[in-house]
Amino acid sequence: MAIIVVQTEINATVEKVWEVIADIDNEPKFWKGTKEVKTLSKEGNLIKREITITFRDQKCLQEIQLIPKQAIKAKFTKGILDGTKTITLTAKNDIVILQTSWDIKLSGMMEMFTSVIKNHIKSGTEQAMQSIKNEVEK
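The structure corresponding to this sequence follows.
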């Protein structure tokens, strides 16, 4: 498994950061590795969806759990990615610490390439976090 953790500080309220990140249909705007999202079902704060990632236009299924103003937990349930991506918000004085943690691997025969894509995912996550920060702080 590849463990990746990226965090940034945002000069805003938790509510303002949550408003941006909880709009998960907007994910491709910030996460360049996500090409397209399609919600399959929604029950309260549990969302099942199909995403198309830019890596070979692969489709993956995800279960997303929204924990308002605290976290977004995404579990990859089918496709080339296996594992989780968790985004957390922590208020600290006048800032919010936004953190994304990945615990993933490529599935099946592609598993041997997990270490190769780790840096790519880390770089994409750093870019996404900066884009979210820029959007919230503007």
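The mean pLDDT is 94.
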